[in-house]
Amino acid sequence: MSVHERRQREQEQRRKLIISAARELAESVGWNAVTTRRLSDHIEYSQPVLYKHFKGKEDIVRAVALEGFGEMADALQKARVGADTPRERFAAAARCYTEFASVNRTLYEAMFMLNTDLTFGGPDSPENLIRCFEELKSSVLDVAGPRDPETFTEVVWASLHGLVTLERAGRLRASHQEERLAMFVQQHFEPQPDDPRG
């Protein structure tokens, strides 16, 4: 291995360590308390070392969010592959999405609630974001009927995000989560006008 390759590998390892430490710190103190100074103290790197890899906190949050979209894509794929029918796939995707958001609260916050420059739904969207969207689309495609699959997926995504956001803010009754998910799935299996499923 050349000196250049070794240096690149070390830089990539350092970058991964910074991302991992940011996630860990956010989980313990919350994103509002994560600063580059606090992060550099946490991992015992100087701030200039952090700035060699990231422009600032927003850039670190962006990297964490991208990791999160990759993890969510993997979870959605696993849920989809384990289901046999369109209804099972749809239900598995809905459950997977809400469970992912519940188990990974600070990660989900970085993905959807904190300010980043991530482009959603565009040709220059990052690969992990596209992969996550495509996995969700694959899970709900059979349910879309004659509707545009991408728009349908966006509506499903927005609906699930709404449920997650209202639940985590304590605006919905915690004891009715299962019932809400069941209704969410059921409403998408009601026949639509011009739907060949009748």
Automatic annotation (TrEMBL):
InterPro entries linked to this entry: Homeodomain-like_sf, HTH-type_TetR-like_transc_reg, HTH_TetR, MT1864/Rv1816-like_C, Tet_transcr_reg_TetR-rel_C_sf
A Pfam family recorded for this sequence: TetR_C_33
Ranges for domain HTH tetR-type: 12-72
Keywords from the named record: DNA-binding, Transcription, Transcription regulation
Segments of the chain annotated as binding DNA: 35-54
Top-level taxon of the source organism: Bacteria
Transcription regulation listed as a keyword: yes
One MF term in the entry's GO annotations: DNA-binding transcription factor activity
The keyword Membrane belongs to this UniProt entry's keyword annotation: no
Protein's recorded name: TetR family transcriptional regulator
Organism, scientific name: Streptomyces capillispiralis
Lineage: Bacteria, Bacillati, Actinomycetota, Actinomycetes, Kitasatosporales
